Amino acid sequence: MKTRITELFGIEHPIIQGGMHYVGYATLASAVSNAGGLGIITALTQRTPEALAAEIRRCRELTDKPFGVNLTFLPSVTPPDYPGYIKAIIEGGVKVVETAGNNPQKWLPALKEAGIKVIHKCTAVRHALKAETIGCDAVSVDGFECGGHPGEDDVPNFILLPRAAEELSIPFVASGGMADGRSLVAALALGAEGMNMGTRFIATKEAPVHDNVKQAIVAASELDTRLVMRPLRNTERVLGNAAVDRLLDKERQLGASLKFEDIAAEVAGVYPRIMQDGEMDAGAWSCGMVAGLIRDVPTARELIDRIMAEAEALIRQRLTGMLGT
Ligand SMILES: Cc1cc2nc3c(=O)[nH]c(=O)nc-3n(C[C@H](O)[C@H](O)[C@H](O)COP(=O)(O)O)c2cc1C
């Protein structure tokens, strides 16, 4: 399948693995890239720019296909060493960067000068248009369904994607709620040039996370995610668990006076305990509603091959068949 996204990134299939904290290591990124998609290493999971440089080297040893690095710009009192991470990306010869969070404008000149293609993740059409204006090469449009941070507008992909298609000139991928060949064909029909998946890729053999995490995704239905941190305007879609119940109780009790410190125990620094140690009630962790469509733990290649075969059959048989002769 050839789209503007496969052409832009030099990949075989229009499928991207979004950056994921404590999931997006070289093992998963290289497996996705080797299967013909675009795998992405998550920069901030690496404690230092030196550690990111080592992870990029490791990925290159595992694949000779293109892969990317996610750089998430978070509001923070003591920001990470972004210039250092960007230097590691450029010197590591990475050709694709997925930016997310705050406007990446400040960092674009350095990335562009190094010949790096930038795809910015957005949850609103106005942010996608801004990304286009400042020179991003593509955008990843994340609907309300998505695992992680869906923003505060709550527009699901059936509306958000065609709205993005109406406004954008640069290519975009659909993100949030994507799981299979049906998702890909629907995304293409709505105007996207491919799809980005997060939660689905956690439940793959190569995802370097504890098996409890994969099994929790397989066991979850589409009703099992919760939105947390809405009062802080930092909404995150997470899988429900005991810590999330506690957090939501505090949100209800404290109302508008809620501060980050009140819920720090449930959200700060919990990822290693969940992703590495498999302590499933240690805190809140991002998970999409798409968990309801995930029932197995295939390899990245099995997953991608299956998606492409299903998409092709849908287009050639189901859709074409509906047109008659
Ligand atoms: C466990 C987890 C961690 C994530 N961490 C990040 C992150 O650090 N930076 C980022 O830009 N997006 C992050 N995301 C969002 C994904 O890259 C992707 O946009 C999202 O999962 C798409 O929705 P889906 O889960 O329905 O496929 C994360 C998602 C999950 C599930």
From TrEMBL:
The keyword Glycoprotein does not apply. GO terms for molecular function: monooxygenase activity. It is an enzyme of class 1 (oxidoreductase). Keywords: Flavoprotein, FMN, Monooxygenase, Oxidoreductase. Its EC number is 1.13.12.-. This is Nitronate monooxygenase family protein. It comes from Noviherbaspirillum album.
